[in-house]
Design brief:
alpha+beta, Alpha-Beta Plaits, single chain, 27% helix, two-stranded antiparallel ribbon, globular, 142 residues
């Protein structure tokens, strides 16, 4: 088994329900959710919006590869109503956003884990250290 840390965020609709629905989908399709941070209210980052965010981080035990997790998190986002992905630093309001932050092979959590740098996926997440809305929930469960 491997360990993956995911960041979740939402700023549209019933935000608490959006996060809980995403976590339930992750539990069914990706692996066992073994830790969940508190939900944290934050202001938009990287764009202007009148809608505040609700953010969380979860720790998941999984047998899946990072690319399989990416595919499934994108499917989960679509199934929950996300229609527009952020591209090239252009951010939008969203029903749900799921980002892969860290991935540890064989659940051995030391250092910063597996490194991947492809056009589709970068692990560790390249902007997580700039985002308190990611770091605060992540530190709660690491």
């Amino acid at each position: 088994m491997h360990t993956v840390f995911l960041s979740l965020g939402t700023n549209l609709g019933d935000k608490e329900r959006n996060l809980n629905d995403a976590i339930a989908h992750i539990q069914r399709r990706i692996g066992t959710v073994v830790a969940k941070s508190a939900f944290v209210k934050t202001e938009p980052w990287g764009f202007v919006s009148n809608n505040s965010f609700l953010n969380a981080a979860i720790k998941v035990e999984t047998s899946l590869s990072p690319m399989e997790i990416l595919r499934l998190t994108q499917e989960i986002e679509l199934s929950l109503g996300r229609t527009v992905k952020s591209v090239s630093g252009e951010y939008h309001d969203r029903i749900i956003d799921i980002d892969i932050l860290l991935y540890y092979v064989d659940s051995v959590i030391k250092g910063d884990g597996l490194h991947i740098n492809t056009p589709e996926l970068t692990i560790p997440h390249p902007l997580m250290n700039e985002r308190d809305f990611v770091l605060v929930p992540l530190k709660e469960i690491i």
